[in-house]
Every structure is written in structure tokens, then in C-alpha cells.
Hints:
- Keywords: Dipeptidase, Hydrolase, Protease, Signal.
- By secondary structure, the chain is α+β, with helices and mostly antiparallel strands.
- The protein is 32% helix and 19% strand.
- It has 2 domains: 2-342, no CATH class; 411-552, no CATH class.
- The strands form 7 sheets. A 7-stranded antiparallel sheet has the order 16-14-1-2-19-20-21. It has a 5-stranded antiparallel sheet with strand order 10-11-12-13-15, with helices on one face.
Amino acid sequence: MKKILALMGVAAMLLQISPANACTNVLVTKNASVDGSTLISYAADSHDLYGELYFWPAATYEAGSMLKVYEWDTGKYLGEIEQAAQTYTVIGNMNEHQLTIAETTFGGRSELRDPEGLIDYGSLIYITLQRAKTAREAIKTMTELVENYGYYSSGESFSIADANEVWVMEMIGKGEGNKGAVWVAVKIPDGYVSAHANQARITSFPLKDKENCLYSEDVISFAREKGYFNGKNKNFSFADAYAPLDFGAVRFCDARVWSAFNIMNPADMGQYEAYALGNSTERMPLYIKPDRKISHRDVMNIMRDHYEGTALDMTKDAGAGPFSKPYRFRPLTWEVDGEKYFNERAIGTQQTGFSFVAQMRSWLPAHIGGILWFGVDAAATSVYMPMYAGMTAVPNCVAQGNGDLLNYSDNSAFWAFTTVSNRAYGRYSHMIEDIKKVQTELEDNLTSFTTAIDQSAKALYDQNPDLARQFLTDFSINQAELVTERWKRLGEFLLVKYNDGNLHEEVDGEFLLNEHGNPKHAKFPGYSNEYYKTIVKDTGDHLKIRELPAEK
Length: 552
């Protein structure tokens, strides 16, 4: 292991993961899901990203209209491109046709970034959602955009799905002076699941199966030209050529894929635990068959994973503190006495701006079939709220402009949820149980509601599609506002229950009183026995109770 680390170097580890774009996607095909939905999840993990729901209404434009492009991460103006004659309504990362696109940044070879490109990865997603109806159309639109205008970002893995197909596409630029990108897109076979998390995942791919695999004409020849590959075409690996593995790519990134796969099929994934730990270079497959059908609720819980119950469990070591907090504040790597160390990077993380689980259902009209289950702040302490693809407006509590990362808003969902999560960090093992109780109650209700809403909306849609869209809009807005208000009350409840490190007893949210009508005497649960042992190990006899010395 030391030899591997010495060869790779900590500096190389950091090249593969951009701190602002450390995200996770899980993909589920129709025959792998409980109800025949296709599913894609996404966590937009960034220390500088505010959680809000993007919205673009459908529109038509005159010939010659231009669209200004701004880099999604920074807001930097990149230039103008030709506007489409017709655009579609976009709710977050899903459009009105149930097309959904998500991403994770793998970085790859730094020399392949094109500083003159006009299309960054974020703009590529949101422009495409306004222009394409299906996953295959999206792939065509995305690759044509970067071919025509240049690709500004580093290497990206994209999840692209409609109600019938699920694809992974990986793309990287060609460097300064070379417009366009090299890319490959693989359709995930029906009945299988996939995932990616800031490391390129497509290795070899079928060169003659255009139904299930698409790629740029020069994806192999360009790698040869640059000296990244010199074997036979059939042995070409996109990931090995354009984003070679290093320790960071495995332990910070692919380990999250392993954990997602391990949740969906633990029996088959045990063989890859050594890889997840950085003790092997035997890559995992791009996709696996789950050992059961996967629901949208299963995917929500995967997005909340902190490696619990595995060799990478973040709740077990001293870094978790006295209350088993599964988060580590940055930096990701650190040094003690000349030795370099790192923190685990799980799927669930505190720096999430927003996350979602997109559910696309082919048996319903697109406006009803698509649900973007949307949450803000850390997934483990958030609630996924249903946003229908047919919505014509978004809730104010998640709307753009309602507060920002540096300006608190009292009616913002992001600030309501981040208040609760930050409160929980101080006494996590206790507070998370209260949080999960309300979280589960709300998500159970919302799942039940959508079943009824689907039926009512379908009946209405058959008579008046516009009225059905208004019905869906009202439902999504009302539920989001109710969830936000409920979470604000939860934050108040946690403050009272755990005030000053005490524990005030309650039953169903009602705090107990003594026989005189005053607050019942608080409890002092203290730290876990394991943490007290850590204190003793650190302090020796300094805190040990002992007899005073005898008088002289």
C-alpha cells in the first residue's frame, strides 16, 4: 500500500476531484425498478452552491436570437450561442418531456481543458434540457453543442435518461486550440443499475453496437495522437486513457459507487471491497444487476449513505466525535508529523446544495409521469419533495432569488433545512433520530399523495391538459411550502429538546412536566462509553477521581 501511495502521490489524488463538483449519481433502469420507472439521482455537492430549484418556462424565439452563456460554477460570462427556435419547460434537471440530465466531474487530464470553449458542463445540461425530448436527442444535442462552440470544462460523466432509456456519457475536451470533445455514451441494459461519482467509469465499450453505444469518431485516434493509448482498438478504455486511476480517484470517488452498489447487491460487491479501500486496482463493472427491485425511496436512502455498516463507516472513528457524526469538515486531506492523511468522502455529505431523485414513468403523460423528488442541503437531513414535470411555476421556498448563500431568508427551504442540519452536527446520534422520524413521516405521506395525485391528474389531463398542469403545479407548490414550515418547527423543537446539551423528555412532540406543572427535570445522557475511553486514553489520570493526599 505504501508503495502504491508513493507512486501516485497525494498531489495526483487531488487532480481527479474538484472540491466544487464532488457529486454522486445513481441510475436505475425500468426493469430494475419496483414500478417500471427509470430513476436518476444527483447530489450537487459544493461549498459555494445555494440550494434552489431552477426554472425555465417554454418559449419561442425569432430567427437570429442569441443566448448568453455563463459558467454554472462561477457565473463567468463565456459568450453567446444561437438560440433555439423552440425551448421546453425545465424544472431543475428535468424537462416537461421527462428528460433528466445529471453529472459528476472527473477532471481527467488537465491539458485537455479548452479555455476558449463557450459551453461549460452546467450550461450544457440546462441548454440541452430546453432543446431535447429524449435521452438519444440529448446526447446528439450535447455533442453538437460542444462541437460547434467548444467545451470549456474538464472531464464529465453525465447521467441522461428519459422514461424508457438510461445512459451514461463521458466527455472531455481536446485542449487549447482544439474545439470540441471526445466522448462515449453507453446505454445501461434494462434490468441493471449504474452509478458514477467523480471518476470516469466507462472502460472498454462495444465499437459496433450503435443501438447501445455511441462515441465520437476520434475518441480512440485522438488518444493515440496524444500518447494516451497504443493498443488494439478493441482494448481501448476511455477511463484509462483520459482519466487514469490514482488513489484519490478510488478512495474519494469510486468508493461511493461501491457503496451504492453494495446497498443494492451486497453479495456480489464484497469482492470489490479491497478496491473501495484503495488496496486493489481491479475496477468495478459499469453496471450491475441488483438483488431486488429498487424504488425511488431506496435511491433516496442511498443518497443519504455514510458507509454505515462497512469498513469505511464514518460514524466509528475519533473523527466522528462523541455523537457519531458521519461528516468531516474540510480540508479533505491533512498532515500530522510529516505524514499525509485524508477524510472519507461518502455519498451523503454536509456541503450539498441540492439533490434529487428523478422518477420517469412511461405509462403516464409526460407532464404527470415525471417527478423530480427535490431536496436542499444535506440529503440525510432533508426531505425529498415532489416536483412534477408538468409544473408551470415553482414554489417560492425553493425559487431562485429567495435568499442566497450569504443572505438568510426566513421563507427559504434551504435555510430551514440547513438550520436543522447544522444544529444536528453538535449532537448527531441523538438528533438524527428525531429528524428521521419527521423525514420518514413526510416522505411516506408525499409518496402516498402522489399516487392519488397521479390518478386525479390523469383524469383531468384527458379532458383539459392545461388545467391538469395547474393542478400539478398547485399540489407541488403547496406541499413544498408545508414541508418547509414543518421543518422550521422541527428546528425549533430540536433547540428546545437539546438546549445546553441537556435532554428534555417528550412524547409525540409534547414536553413532559413535573407534578407541579414545571418542566420535568432534564436528563444528561453524556457521551458514549467508547468516547469516554478515548478521553481517558488522551488524558491519562488527569481527569481521574482520586483521594486527596494525606495531611502532613
